[in-house]
Fold these 4 entries.
Entry 1:
Amino acid sequence: MAALFAPPPLPLIMAAPNGARRTKSDHPCLPMTISETVAAAKACFHAGAGALHAHVRDPSGAHVLDAGLYRELLSEMRVAVPQMQVQITTEAVGKYTPEQQRELVYNVQPALVSVAVREMVPDGGENQAKAFYEWAFSHECAVQHIVYSADDLDRFFNLAAAGTLTGDSHQLLFVLGRYAAGQESAPEDLVPFLEKLAERGGGQVLDWAVCAFGHRETDCLVEAVRRGGKTRIGFENGLWNRSGERAKDNADRVRDLVSALTEHSLMPA
């Protein structure tokens, strides 16, 4: 029953193979088409990822919130790798409004979606956002709330306390390095998020993950798992393995993380 819905557990590793901005000029193996994204997701699944964080692109290669393209991707994923969860994104990239973001989710009706708190709930938009979160809850759509800073996380807790968010079981994504110099993150960037989580997280079931920009992506994600979190990895955030060498492809990034987690005895059997 919808009244009993709680988001399913996040996988330990979610693959984010393309994102909204990078192109093949950044890496020739960055997927741009649906077929390339499905192939990358399948390879990441076999490397150890349990879910796909999916972006779709238009024919020019631009990130779009296109319900038809997302439905096509979801259909292809059900055939190619049905064991893999698929999370769509509502990322605004500076051009999509909260209304357009919500409309995408209403039209696709995905099982999983990521939503940036600062994009979906601007000041004054709480009532519209509340209706969206109630809809997602009633349709058993798991929303992962993206926060870019401890202030964003504080806003998340304020929205939860005000009843804008539905339920008391939530998924979170802490983004490290997005607004840092050169978009380079470090493991210590996780500390402000964890301090805010300890301060305000009591009384709720919070399933959190981390993504990290730059060359130290793997180090940051190992620290996240060590501290009780999950991970999102791939060319959306970083192109480099922990050796400093550029990864061959997205599956190579997953293998690098699996190897690091295994070395630290953090990888489940």
Note: Residues 10-263 form a domain with the TIM Barrel fold (CATH 3.20.20.70).
Entry 2:
Amino acid sequence: MSSQPISLQPGVITHIRFNRPEALNAIDSAMARAFLDACRATVADPGVRVIVLSGEGRAFMAGGDIAQFKSAPQSIADELIQPLNEAMLLLANCPAPVIASVRGAAAGAGMSIVLACDLALAAANSRFNFAYLSLGASCDLGASWHLPRLVGLRRALHIALLGEPLDAEHACRLGIVNQVVAVEELESATQALAERLAQSSPVAQGHLKRLLRQAFDNTQGEQLEAEKAAFAACAQGEDFQEAVNAFLQKRPAQFKGR
């Protein structure tokens, strides 16, 4: 049995790994609390530039823990969903890009977490399943917010209401994941993407992430003003001056996040 439900590897590229492989990383209250703690620690670290979410073993996450659903259904909202909701908001609002690195099953809450990430890589053996209706439940963790924004309303309704599994290539065509790689290449491809993102200005990336995530909820005028303010904030920072100097000197920029 796994000793800790979440594995946290801090650093410039921080890895948060779901760690209940014997249960295909099905999430229970203990894992939800541990995930929230890991997210809190990660977003509080100013040195973090990229966050990678993955699952230990054969699956990313096979949804919620059915044993808890059976024994304590009254605990689900407060002890399971609430800490996960807090974690989702922390990851959405932090400036660092969040990558989902998916192998095997991503069902129910697992699929919802993938939808919430900024970017997603999937191994060729990945399978995505909305899965909520098969349990007689609606969705959680922001799935109803993210899914129509990623695939459009009609496709979102089809995925949610029919609950048909999606293989990795189909998920990529729909925009649920960005890239599909061979199973044995998932870790190296994820690391390469994370390293590429870590080389960019954290300040500019943070503004871009926020601008794109709020765009659907703003008018065009509001978004134009938000872009102007963000660009002005970037232009006053050291990273902007470093980028300009590096361009003129024909050398790679070295960003410090200031």
Note: The chain is about 50% helix and 15% strand.
Entry 3:
Amino acid sequence: MEIIRLIEDNIGYILFDLDPYLNTENLKRIYEVLNEYENDPNIDLIVLKSRLKQFCSGYNLDELINFNEADSKIYSFLGQRLIKRIRDIKKIVISMVDGDALGGGFELALASDIIFATKRSRFGFPETNYGIISGFGGTQLMSRRIYETFTKYLVFTGELVDASVLYEKGFIAKIFENIAEMERFLNELKDKIKERSIFAIGLAKEVINNGVEIDLDKALLLEQNAFTVAFASKDKKEGMTAFLEKRKPIFKDRWEEFKKL
């Protein structure tokens, strides 16, 4: 797989090309590009997308068959590091799935904030067919969204399911007829996000992602603290003033600037 970096209209694309598999170097490269995009004030959305007939087939067995325990530990670490980076980054990360998203590819999609998929797309964890299990956190990402029994079914059987099945269970935000329709919708979403506070979106993402990991009392306190932080931002004053003045707000607070402090 070749990882292509493309920035277009406030969208930072991470494009998969040449072959549908994730190897060690690709995991490192995607991680590096995410870090670049996080620090770029010209990027509001980050999109994972493939130029192939599949989104991503995950692990490459030609590589993994030669792994020993130490190799597999490093590979799993790199994959899980990438998954955590996708969740920790303050910008919205979208997986645009057209075709199969299997194993590590499915895990990348699950780590994203939003999954869009075409009707022809399929998802699954085929690892038990090869004598291994998922290694990038997919079992945990799915089961922490309440669907423990469904996660076990997919992992135990290795069965592939259509996008419609995951849509019904709330994993996929929207299904499209084809990739062209999905791209048109992405452009509409991009324009909508431009009118929102990127700073507030980053706060909300942090609260949602971290809140599911802790008990309710701690999660409520996390939300309360983030709510208070929002009131210290210029975007809060601009947003409320614009509403009262019946005009569109011009938000300027960016996480890139806060990281420099």
Note: The chain has a mean pLDDT of 92.
Entry 4:
Amino acid sequence: MSLLDQLDQLDQLDQLHQQLGPMSWPLLLCSVITLALWLERSLSLLWTSLRGEQEKRQLRLDGNAYPQAEMTAPKSLILQGCSLLARHRGCDKNTREDLATVWLQQQRRRLHSGLRVLTLVGVISPLLGLLGTVLGLIEMFRSIGASGDPVTPALLADGLGLAMSTTAVGLLIALPAIAGAQLFGLWADRLIDKLTDELNRCNLHLEGVQLGGSRS
């Protein structure tokens, strides 16, 4: 990166700071957190979903895949859960169900990781924007009161526009943060439901009960 590019970026950051005032850095931090969590959750849940569908089809095609799951190196959550149950096939059915329940809770927490932070960012960002607006209005009226020049509509419009910009930025950050928390939460719950269904099938298979067909 050339020196001119660096100076141009610094100039843009300075303009952003002038528009957003003291709330520029907190809002910038919130936007970075939102973007990072969006990318991380999207890639993680997408990989888990695609890998799980592949393993599910393999389990449906191979009737002996459930008891052989413990002999493979688990890569997907479905194989990890089936491998766990296969390793404890000597236990009774209720014990394996309790074991599966504890394991599913651990996976639920992992799949929901970061969603509370997204929700928190979605709640805090509009408040930071509103605080920036209030501070901007206070500074604008203080400057008008200290000035001896006549107050014109253009002067008020410029001041109000700069003051309201923090509220707009806060809302722009909050919308994807809250939407992401809800969408990723639904996605994770869907994956947990599919995983629970597959573990139930595996547990029944270890009991000698064969189920025909599949459910998407």
Note: The mean pLDDT is 80.
